[in-house]
Specification:
heterotrimer, A alpha/beta (407), B alpha+beta (102), C alpha/beta (302), B: 102 residues, alpha+beta, Alpha-Beta Plaits, flat, C: 302 residues, alpha/beta, 9 strands
């Protein structure tokens, strides 16, 4: 831990930024289990709690499954809660990831992106959070440490507005352990932006005893008063409706945050020199930051490249992406993950979103960075040149380009 | 008019008797107070014994001087009759043997 | 020792619920909720109890109840307790984790051990019907030796796990063993636990008519017989000091244990057991009972 200010700019790692955000958000319960590269988040929070700097219940649970369980239960009784994990820890709590979302609890979890075993690998890729993309959490990806802090704070507001949990994802080691200047907002500014958690959907009250999360049938069923209540499918439709609503809530919360603190990150995604781009380079997380350096090099040699940095991956911003990419000739999507047996998750989701649109770019995919394989801006530039060359030669469909593979 | 009218956002229920319906329909025999005068509470004229009350898994037996059974929900398990020290309760068939209940 | 006739009248378990006819869980749950006067929040994993609690949108209990994932009961109770403290709402409320033997000793043991090591502040009550009854009577770690289940068709070969002993090894302030067919003992133990801080563990033997293979009318008779054989032992350990309670105490002082053969013969799950097997079970019970007698003679020793 380097400097530890209450406000102002100092140097900190991505993990410190996430911990600082949870503290600013006045989180009430933290339950977490250590795993590389997330452990410093937990270490920092426990240090503050023990030192009396953060008034929060800290539970040193015995597993990740229990970490998210404690969060689910605390959130059910109305507390604002936070946890963090990576990789196999996220996989271990998978059952509860689904539970938290279906239970509509506004939990915020930092996912410090790391590859999944087998085999063991402690380094960065995005497979862990990507493997949870169907579970019904909002997923936001951060490009640098400042965005980590700001996004984690925003996440509580977003979650508590739509009653959907939020994963804030950032690259293990590349961001989690890398030191960058971060401007920590004043506590008062965050208090104004983020009031205490509103009354939860869940009622835990002796005067009004409820049974929460019971077996729910396939078909609607009447209660004792004769009111026909939801079947499982209706509850899931409400969940889907709420997470799709986040497409409006995420930019709105960004705007409110910008008013309070003076910074915003583009809402659902951000663009760099995309307007006139002949090739759009697309990625989530720190890779997108690297792509801006790649674009510098490509533009210098006359290639009009641009960046679209994915921030909100779930809900997937279909309409906004269609609009942003309309008229672009080629889109090259870089995935640090795979849906095995098919292709890169962001790439395939984008293809699906653009399917049938007359003005959509041709979408090519690239797989990179698995298990922490280093990807340089030069590697990315080569990939962009290859994609452009193939497209210019008339190729409209090709196998995914695995960067730096040495098989 | 869909289920949205219930106003629920999550699976969260309120209490009521009869969650499983009129569970009295489950039974094939029912407890009958065949010898009320033998009931220890009746004999004493006050709340005593109360084993039938405490042992009913479904809270279908009153805590009283001489039990009353809620036949809407009594599942006919037979525990109350079995625990009665005075044999004041007896399980009797819902229907004559060989007859259909309908 | 509270007399049955003095147990509070108020009910928190509603008639017409979905439990089997004659299920002793209902008897136990009535006593437990009376002991806490309904001032509780329950965490309940997948189990028979889930079904007793009802299906959306109707609840069968008038206490706050949170359904949780199978492995997670103790962690969920931990979270409820932490959340209530964080919200300043903990006073006067007991958090009760209530799970079956499988949810406690098998899939749930990790979370329970963690909560016990941290001495989290809630009551954990394991209702032991000696198999995964909710899913149709598959064997659990608590299934007795010789019992037929749908995954031990020829009878389970292993003796049951001793969860109260495991919980004692965690050094928590209160560990107890009771039986649903002794509602006065259940009541007293839960009421005592209510006043203790930290993790309080209570195991409640819960006779199951369909799973054990007997007529529901015999639920109380057989549950009591189990105590009379010394198979089910009613006891408590408070801060390491041991004491038999209720009918087990009476049995130790004055009675002669009934032979387990009688109990085994009354249950369909033991059908086909040889005399030799019954003899081995009797020997197992006898040696366990001697250990309990030694502890009763020297309560603070071990």
């Amino acid at each position: 831990m380097l400097q530890n200010p209450t406000a102002g700019v100092s140097l900190m790692t991505g993990n410190e930024a996430a911990a600082r955000a949870a503290r600013l958000a006045r989180v009430q319960v933290v339950a977490a289990y250590p795993i590389t590269p997330q452990s410093p988040v937990v270490e920092q929070l426990s240090k503050w709690v023990e030192g009396g700097e953060l008034a929060c219940e800290f539970v040193a649970v015995e597993s990740e499954h229990s970490a998210l369980t404690v969060c689910i239960a605390s959130s059910t009784v109305g507390a604002r809660v936070f946890t963090a994990t990576s990789s196999n820890g996220l996989a271990y709590m998978n059952e509860q990831v689904w539970w938290a979302a279906g239970a509509r609890l506004p939990i915020v979890m930092a996912v410090v992106n790391r590859s999944l075993a087998a085999p063991w690998n402690v380094l960065n890729d995005q497979q862990d959070s990507m493997s949870e993309r169907d579970a019904g959490w909002i997923q936001l990806y951060c490009r640098d440490n400042q965005e980590i802090l700001d996004t984690c704070v925003q996440a509580f507001r977003i979650a508590e507005t739509v009653n959907v949990p939020v994963m804030v994802c950032y690259d293990g080691f590349l961001l989690s352990h890398t030191v960058m200047p971060v401007d920590v907002p004043e506590q008062a500014a965050i208090d104004a932006f983020l009031p205490p958690r509103p009354k939860p959907l869940t009622v835990v009250d002796l005067a009004d005893p409820r049974n929460i999360g019971q077996v729910t049938l396939a078909d609607p069923r009447a209660n004792a008063e004769g009111a026909v209540c939801h079947g499982y499918m209706e509850l899931r439709a409400l969940h889907q409706r709420a997470i799709v609503q986040a497409l409006d809530v995420i930019p709105r919360v960004e705007a409110q945050y910008a008013e309070a603190v003076g910074r915003s990150w583009g809402g659902l995604f951000w663009e760099d020199r995309l307007d006139d781009a002949q090739i759009a380079l697309i990625a989530a997380g720190s890779l997108a930051t690297q792509l801006t350096v790649t674009v510098d090099a490509l533009r210098a040699e006359g290639i009009r490249a641009g960046v679209l940095g994915i921030r909100a991956y779930r809900p997937f911003p279909v309409a906004a992406l269609r609009a942003a990419l309309a008229g672009r000739g080629v889109a090259l999507v870089f995935d640090k993950a795979l849906s095995y047996g098919f292709g890169g998750p962001i790439c395939n989701d984008l293809r699906a979103a653009l399917c049938g649109r007359a003005d959509a770019p041709v979408v090519f995919g690239a797989i990179t960075g698995l298990g922490g394989r280093d990807t340089t801006p030069a590697d990315l530039a080569d990939a962009a040149r290859r994609a452009l060359a193939e497209h210019d030669a008339g190729v409209r469909e090709r196998a995914d380009d695995w960067l730096t593979l040495k098989l | 008019m869909g289920t949205s009218d219930c106003g629920h956002e999550i699976s969260m229920a309120t209490p009521s008797v009869g969650e499983a319906g009129k569970t009295g329909a489950w039974r094939s025999e029912r407890p009958v107070l065949v010898a009320p005068e033998a009931c220890l509470a009746v004999k004493a004229g006050k709340i005593t014994c109360q084993l039938c009350w405490v042992y009913c898994p479904d809270a279908c037996v009153t805590r009283s001087v001489g039990p009353a059974i809620d036949l809407t929900y009594c599942k006919g398990c037979g525990i109350c009759a079995a625990v009665c020290p005075a044999k004041a309760l007896e399980m009797q068939p819902e229907h004559e043997p060989g007859t259909c209940g309908r | 020792m509270t007399k049955i006739v003095d147990l509070p009248e108020g009910e928190f378990v509603l008639s017409g619920n979905r439990a089997c006819a004659g299920c002793s869980l209902g008897i136990g749950l009535r006593a437990i909720t009376k002991a806490l006067d309904g001032q509780m929040v329950m965490t309940v994993p997948a189990s028979c109890l889930t079904v007793l609690g009802g299906m959306y949108p109707v609840s069968s209990v008038t206490v706050p109840w949170i359904n949780v994932a199978f492995a997670s009961t103790a962690a969920a109770a931990t979270g409820v307790a932490a959340g209530l403290r964080a919200m300043g709402r903990a006073d006067g409320l007991t958090v009760l984790a209530m799970a079956g033997d499988g949810g406690t000793g098998d899939i749930g043991i990790q979370a329970l051990s963690g909560a016990a090591e941290r001495n989290e502040d809630f009551i954990y009550l394991c209702y032991d019907n000696e198999a995964y009854m909710n899913t149709g009577t598959q064997r659990s770690s608590h299934t007795p030796r010789g019992a037929r289940t749908t995954t031990t068709w020829a009878g389970k070969r292993e003796n049951p796990k001793d969860m109260p002993a495991i919980m004692e090894a965690h050094g928590i302030p209160y560990v107890a063993s009771t039986s649903a067919v002794y509602p006065d003992d259940v009541y007293d133990k839960v009421a005592k636990a209510r006043g203790i801080r930290g993790l309080r563990y209570i195991q409640m033997s819960t006779a199951c008519p369909p799973g054990w293979g007997f007529d529901p009318r015999d639920t109380v008779r057989l549950g009591k017989l189990a105590v009379q054989t010394g198979l089910t032992v009613l006891y408590e350990v408070q801060n390491g000091v041991f004491g038999l309670t209720s009918a087990s105490r009476t049995l130790a002082q004055a009675g002669r244990r009934r032979p387990v053969a009688e109990l085994i013969a009354a249950q369909g799950r033991f059908k086909g057991m040889s005399d030799e097997d019954v003899g081995e079970i009797q020997a197992w019970i006898d040696s366990r009972w001697e250990r309990f007698m030694a502890r009763e003679a020297d309560p603070a020793g071990h």
